[in-house]
């Protein structure tokens, strides 16, 4: 690579401009010469975007920053403070909220870069941004896989599959042991490296360096940070849906043998169990696929495909989708949690959350069972 093999004196002074476009500035025009060696040459041939695009992205990231810190901050606070929510399964929800929290805690670096229209935070800021991004991104993916496993074992084997606190702690420890090396190796440049990308306002691992070691790193991290958790999530949730459908089918067959309409006391109220589970599974899988697949595909194209497809504008889209999921996760995993809503209602009554108390709900359920079963009991009597 020309820039990597050049000395500082070989790099032309600022500003960098296009010779054939009437003095149009290129990306990196406002970067000191000593910082240019940290930027892949791929980006330095593109014209700088309009200032309004930088400012729009800065405003978008500011909104993401506020949404994520408030949403995930509430999850961390409520799930940690409420004794009723300190369950082994909820430890994964807390871990996911922590990953999403730190994912967007680094947003001020991007916002600062965007308002300064480039690589303003420098090499150190880039390393911090990419290191936290790797930790939180891979950590969140593996936490999603652990949540899928926990739900699968709980539903498929409710008696013996219940998670214990020790098992949850061991799984979380293994999760971080699995995640940390993929952030430390490129940070120390032992294998791979962290570099700016897109409009040079965000940073990630280098998927453009044309060496065997770097291509191997991209292939391996693609497998371990995307393929493995994705496979686990799809497998466990598909098994949950299959199990619930089979269970519902068995209940219907048993009801037919007993000559009753349904064995469920509330069969005609609300949606059936398999539809509710299927919707939750599809939502979770879609959220993960939609947010991380574009980034994974982009990395593979950069290393093994036609890199000219990856313009700065195109590569900013996957970067935004990865941040968006950090804002949506607390809504998918926690806001719909009845106990969480009750605890939130207790601590922040001004939010005007209307959640029925579990005791009242249980009493209502018992009433429905009695009313439904009484005629049948009388008929059999």
TrEMBL record:
Transmembrane segments: 53-79, 91-115, 127-147, 168-188, 216-237, 280-304, 316-336
Similarity section: Belongs to the G-protein coupled receptor 1 family.
GO biological process: phototransduction; visual perception
Keyword terms, alphabetized: Chromophore, Disulfide bond, G-protein coupled receptor, Glycoprotein, Membrane, Photoreceptor protein, Receptor, Retinal protein, Sensory transduction, Transducer, Transmembrane, Transmembrane helix, Vision
Protein name: Ultraviolet sensitive opsin
Classification via InterPro entries: GPCR_opsins, GPCR_Rhodpsn, GPCR_Rhodpsn_7TM, Opsin, Retinal_BS
G-protein coupled receptors family 1 profile domain sequence ranges: 71-333
Gene3D superfamilies, A to Z: Rhodopsin 7-helix transmembrane proteins
Membrane topology: Multi-pass membrane protein
Region annotated Disordered, chain positions: 359-381
Biased composition regions of type Polar residues, renumbered to the chain: 359-375
Species annotation: Protaetia brevitarsis
Highest taxon of the lineage: Eukaryota
Record's subcellular location: Membrane
Molecular function per GO: G protein-coupled receptor activity; photoreceptor activity
Annotated Gene Ontology cellular component terms: membrane
Pfam assignment, any one: 7tm_1
CDD domains, per the entry: 7tmA_photoreceptors_insect
């Amino acid at each position: 690579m020309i820039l990597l093999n050049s000395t500082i004196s070989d790099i032309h002074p600022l500003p960098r401009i296009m010779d054939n476009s009437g003095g149009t500035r290129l990306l990196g025009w406002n970067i000191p010469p000593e910082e240019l060696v940290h930027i892949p040459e791929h980006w330095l041939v593109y014209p700088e975007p309009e200032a309004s695009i930088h400012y729009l992205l800065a405003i978008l990231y500011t909104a993401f920053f506020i949404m994520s810190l408030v949403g995930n901050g509430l999850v961390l606070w409520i799930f940690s403070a409420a004794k009723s929510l300190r369950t082994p399964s909820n430890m994964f929800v807390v871990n996911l909220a922590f990953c999403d929290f730190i994912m967007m805690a680094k947003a001020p670096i991007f916002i600062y870069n965007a308002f300064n229209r480039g690589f303003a935070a420098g090499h150190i800021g880039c390393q911090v941004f990419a290191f936290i991004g790797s930790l939180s991104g891979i950590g969140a993916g593996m936490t999603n896989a652990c949540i899928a496993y926990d739900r699968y074992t709980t539903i498929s084997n409710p008696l013996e599959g219940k998670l214990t606190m020790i098992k949850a702690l061991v799984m979380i420890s293994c999760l971080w042991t699995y995640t940390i090396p993929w952030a430390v190796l490129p940070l120390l440049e032992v294998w791979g490296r962290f570099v700016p990308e897109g409009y040079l306002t965000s940073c990630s691992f280098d998927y453009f360096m044309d060496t065997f070691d770097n291509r191997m790193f991209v292939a391996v991290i693609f497998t371990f940070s995307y393929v493995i958790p994705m496979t686990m999530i799809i497998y466990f949730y598909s098994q949950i849906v299959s199990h619930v459908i089979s269970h519902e089918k068995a209940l219907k067959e048993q009801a037919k043998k007993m000559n009753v309409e349904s064995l469920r006391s509330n069969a005609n109220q609300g949606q059936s169990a398999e539809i509710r589970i299927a919707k939750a599974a599809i939502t979770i899988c879609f959220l993960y696929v939609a947010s991380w697949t574009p980034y994974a595909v982009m990395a593979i194209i950069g290393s093994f495909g036609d890199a000219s497809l990856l313009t700065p504008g195109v590569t900013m889209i996957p970067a935004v989708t990865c941040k968006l999921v950090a804002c949506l996760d607390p809504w998918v995993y926690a806001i719909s949690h009845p106990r969480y809503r009750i605890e939130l209602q207790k601590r922040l009554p001004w939010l005007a959350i209307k959640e029925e108390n579990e005791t009242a709900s249980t009493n209502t359920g018992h009433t429905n069972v009695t009313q439904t079963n009484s005629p049948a009991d009388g008929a059999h009597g």
